[in-house]
Write a structure and sequence with these properties.
About 70% of the residues lie in helices and about 0% in strands. It is an all-alpha fold and about 150 residues long. Helix 2 packs antiparallel against helix 4, helix 2 runs parallel beside helix 5 and helix 4 packs antiparallel against helix 5.
């Protein structure tokens, strides 16, 4: 019997399907991967827009602001990964814990997972929204050379 039988294998199986995706999990996996791809495409589009604004405005601070969406994407992805790892760890701990400790260990693991989301997701959103507003302002401002100075 495999070590991960309680977590990743169907009851009654030998646990040899570690990492295999069941048909019922496939829509969830597709949704998560699709969301990451869409989020990444949005971040890359914002970076290109930011680099265009930086070039139009003559560089300076604009060239640093142009990379804010990529940092937001990285933080968002890290938050998602830490949430998943925290939940897996929580259910691993529950599977191996004595009955009187299951609730406490599950609560501790879920708390870690939700903290990762609560800390990193808002920072990513602020970076996305802030960079979008900055790029909009930079796009509407007259180019650096047209200001007469």
């Amino acid at each position: 019997m495999g070590m991960c039988r309680g977590l990743y294998a169907a009851p009654g199986s030998t646990g040899d399907t570690f990492g295999a995706v069941s048909p019922s999990e496939l829509p969830i996996l597709v949704a998560v991967v699709g969301a990451l791809v869409l989020n990444g495409a949005f971040a890359v589009a914002l970076v290109f827009w930011g680099r265009w604004v930086a070039q139009r405005q003559g560089g300076g601070r604009w060239r640093y602001v142009a990379w804010a969406p990529l940092v937001g994407f990285a933080l968002n992805t890290l938050g998602l990964a830490l949430t998943i790892v925290g939940l897996i760890h929580a259910f691993d701990a529950v599977a191996l814990a004595p009955p009187e400790q299951k609730v406490a260990q599950l609560a501790e693991g879920i708390t870690f997972a939700m903290r990762a989301t609560a800390i990193l997701a808002p920072i990513a959103v602020v970076l996305y929204v802030g960079s979008t507003v900055a790029f909009l302002v930079g796009s509407l401002r007259a180019p650096r050379g047209e200001l007469g100075g």
